Amino acid sequence: MDSLDRASAEAQIIKKAMKDSTFRASLIADPKSAIEQTLGITLPANVSVNVYEDTATSFNMVLPAASGSEQMGSDIGSAADCSGWSSAAECAAECTQCGNNDTTCQPGPTEE
């Protein structure tokens, strides 16, 4: 499988987990393997995946990486190419050509 949009991949995984209780259990027990098998991809060895299940008495929130730390790109299995920015966090927060719009980061207009 070629590059897969992260949002689409997450939606596909969540949809399957909502319909298939066996898959849901495997996703919670070993998320990286479950995702790799379902999407037909191999995530980089240095990538970890955490899956948390909301309950009636708890919910989970995902924060972006802290400033100065690297983030995964919008493509599953690839890191962002944040050339021109001082950090991946700055790229994701400020770049008009990447972050949440699913394109590969290139030097932005403020860098020209």
UniProtKB/TrEMBL annotation:
Gene Ontology terms, MF aspect: catalytic activity; transition metal ion binding
Tree of life domain: Bacteria
Protein name per the record: NHLP leader peptide family natural product
Organism per entry: Pedobacter alluvionis
